[in-house]
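Two entries, shown back to back:
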Amino acid sequence: LQELDLKADISVSAWVQLHSINRHQVILSNQGDQPGGYRLYIDKNNKVAFDFINLAGMHLGTESSPGGQE
């Protein structure tokens, strides 16, 4: 898996079928057992979110939007 160049614009998309709602669900992430990285997930409020975390575990930014159709 290649690392992303987070100094440039990126675009991420995914089709996801949820089997449950109102809980944190990771769709894709490069975090693993190490601090830092990025992740695309559904938060406990059913919003799609993408965030960046530095090596110190500090959130550098999170973007979220409403989930899909009910």
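entry 2 starts here
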Amino acid sequence: TRTCPWREIEVHDLGRWVDQTPAAIADAIRDLADDPSMRRAIGERAAAFARERYSWDRIARTMSGIYANVH
């Protein structure tokens, strides 16, 4: 829901980032339940996004860059 600070979900079409109301949540669930190809596409984009941003390789590169700049 929009109460979480994850705008990337909407920006990159990784899922549904909706208002925290029963109607909005139900609509998002219904949309996903009714469209298997959309679910599959969202899942594939979300998995690729997670691998790119949060894999151990990415974390190691980020941390190495941070430590390289520590004096």
